[in-house]
Structures are given as C-alpha cells and as structure tokens.
Design goal:
337 residues; binds adenosine monophosphate; single chain; 2 domains; Rossmann fold; five-stranded parallel beta sheet; binds magnesium ion; DHBP synthase; alpha/beta; 28% helix
C-alpha cells in the first residue's frame, strides 16, 4: 500500500493532527476518518470555508451538511438547547454514529443548513472528536467523496477523489456506513438509515417511526427521489448516490441471481462470504459474514477495480443494520430485479 500512498495523505501523529487542526481554524478543508466514513471538514462557523466543501464535492447547494462537535459546550454554538427527547438520545448515543436535527442558532451560516432552520449535528468518536477538540471549532463535514460517488472508508478512497486536500489517514473506518439521521419534531422519525440501527434507537425512543425511505418506490421527482409526509425531509436522500465503478444489479431473490450468473459468467458477484460456494465458476468479491462486516466492506466494493463485466449483488434481510445495507444498495443499484 505504501507505494500507492499519495502526497496529500498523512498518517496520524501529533504533528499531523496539529497541522489538520490549524488548517481547519484557518478556513481550509481537511479530510479525516470518523467511526462511520471519512468526512470532508471545514469550520462550520466560517461561510467561506463551508463554501469550499460544496465547491470541492460538486454538492448541490440545497443539500445541508452535518455539523460535528466535540462536546456539549460546542453544541451550543450551533444549535439551541436540545429538547428532553434529544437529551436522552445524546446521553445514550454520543459520541457515536447518531445525527440529530436540532433548532439552528442564527449565528451558524445558512449555507451549512441549506437555508433550513434545523441543523443536523453529531458528536463523533475517537480521532475525529480529538481533531475537532484541538481545532476548537464545530466542523461541517459531509462524506469525503465527489458528489454521487460511494462514501470513502479509507484514506486512499478520499485521495482518489481529492488529490489536493489534506487527508488524515486513520485506516479503514469502523462502521463503513454513514450515521443514522433522525428528526424529533413533530414526531421522532429516521430520516436516513445508518450505522446505528432503528432497533437500538427504539429502546430509547419507543415511538420512533421510519421514513418510508428509499426513493425508487416513492412517487415524483425521478427514480431516486425520497419523500416523507409529502416533503423532502432529508434533502440529501433525493440525489443519486454511491455510483459504482460498473453497472450494479441488485437481486431480490437468490434464484434469479443464480439464473443470471449462468448466462453472465464474466460478471463479478459481491457476495456474503458464506454464499461464495454457490458461485464456484464465478468471480466473487467476499463482503464478510455478519451485517457489520458487510456494511464495513460495502463502499470499497462499489469502488472495486477487480475484473468483471458488471457487478451483481443479492439483497440482505432488512433487519437491524441490514436495513441500512439495503438502503445503500438500492441507491447504488443501476437496476433492481
Ligand atoms: P452527508 O453529509 O453526505 O452524510 O449527508 C447528510 C445527510 O443529512 C443528507 O441526507 C442531508 O440531506 C441530511 N441533512 C443534513 N442537515 C439536514 C437538515 N437540517 N434537515 C434535514 N436533513 C438534513
Ligand atoms: Mg455523503
């Protein structure tokens, strides 16, 4: 891997951490690992710095970004005091892969929230939190990929998309999928499935509903649109996402995948490791056995350079993290059969 190391990728040590923190304070972009995926960060209180995120990613201006904080004092700079239900979730799940919609402070630049009066906030774990603490400013950070590409789970993925941005290399990320985004008003609802399953959230908020999310089945606004209660609740979910390196077909039934591979021997099957023996003559890319392993391997698989005329993948059960995996596969798929 060392030979492929890029000049903008820095392994983590005291010096690189301080350099990254100084860049953030100066209004520059820094890519860094979180426990979910790599983020492309900028000082959330600096409108010019935030504009650089949208510019670099080619991100539509109407898609708000998540603000990352290191502690509750920093939270007060970007959001009004959280209501009781939010406080319970914060106590249970922060730092962690849970993003909450809170009422926005007027001092936060409106570009961060795409003009909305809510701000999506989370407190990440580990290195990301250390970096934000060191920078001393809340950090706006969407995933560190060009808009429309799979989220990056390694520093190399980031460097592929952004050869000139300072990247902190903390190794492959722990969850491999983005945070779960939830709104609490007027009722608690999951806006985006993520690393934290609805089942675990429901233990803290039993009434949690889930947005009849992914778009393909939703009406209006094209094949990727997503609507909740008639309104685009989480703007980002309406955009094309996670475009793989080659066309990807998602099979809902094992029998149809088995029939398809017989006629398409050159296709590459992205496959849970225990199912690999079903495809003895086929190129396969093993994703792992548990939903956690599959989630961790998913985005790297969508960026694969391995040989294969097209990518094929089989649906996983929509339980726990499986719901998140299916959400990402449905958004990434060229077609679903
Ligand atoms: P990303 O930053 O790429 O991980 O995406 C963040 C997700 O959170 C996107 O789906 C955004 O549309 C969503 N989001 C961020 N801020 C808000 C907000 N204020 N209201 C609703 N959704 C939001
Ligand atoms: Mg993203």
């Amino acid at each position: 891997m060392a030979a492929r190391r890029r000049k903008n990728v820095h392994s983590v040590d005291t010096r690189s951490l301080h350099e990254a923190a100084a860049l953030l304070r100066r209004g520059e972009l820094v890519a860094f690992p979180t426990e979910t995926v790599y983020g492309l960060g900028a000082n959330a209180l600096d409108a010019k710095a935030v504009a650089k995120i949208f510019e670099a990613k080619g991100r539509p201006q109407d898609n708000p970004v998540i603000v990352h904080v290191s502690d509750l004092r920093m939270l007060r700079k970007v959001a009004d005091p959280p209501p009781p239900r939010a406080r319970a979730l914060i106590a249970r799940f922060w730092p962690g892969p849970l993003t909450l919609l809170l009422s926005k402070k007027s001092s936060l630049p409106s570009s961060v929230t795409a003009g909305l009066d809510t701000v999506a906030v989370r407190m990440p774990q580990g290195l990301a939190r250390d970096l934000i603490r060191l920078a001393g400013v809340p950090v706006a950070a969407p995933s560190a990929n060009l808009s429309g590409r799979p989220s990056p789970t390694t520093a190399l993925h980031v460097a592929e998309d952004f050869p000139d941005v300072f990247v902190l290399d903390g190794g492959p990320t722990k969850h491999g999928v983005e945070s779960t985004v939830i709104a609490l008003e007027p009722f608690p609802v999951v806006l985006r499935q993520g690393a934290l399953s609805e089942e675990s959230l429901r233990k803290t908020i039993p009434g949690l509903r889930h947005a009849a999310s992914t778009g393909r089945l939703a009406s209006g606004g094209g094949p990727f649109s997503s609507k909740v209660n008639g309104a685009a609740a989480s703007p980002g979910t309406k955009y094309t996402h996670y475009a793989p390196t080659r066309p990807l077909t998602l099979f809902l039934r094992k029998s149809s995948l088995l029939a398809y591979v017989r006629a398409h021997p050159k296709a590459l099957v992205l496959c849970p490791t225990p199912l690999a023996p079903l495809f003895p003559k086929q190129r396969t890319l093993a994703l792992g056995s548990s939903p956690e392993e599959i989630a961790r391997a998913l985005f790297a698989a969508l960026r694969t350079r391995r040989r294969g005329s097209e990518l094929l993948v089989l649906a996983v059960p929509r339980r726990g993290l499986g719901r998140t995996i299916m959400d990402r596969l449905e958004r990434a798929a060229t077609r679903i059969v």
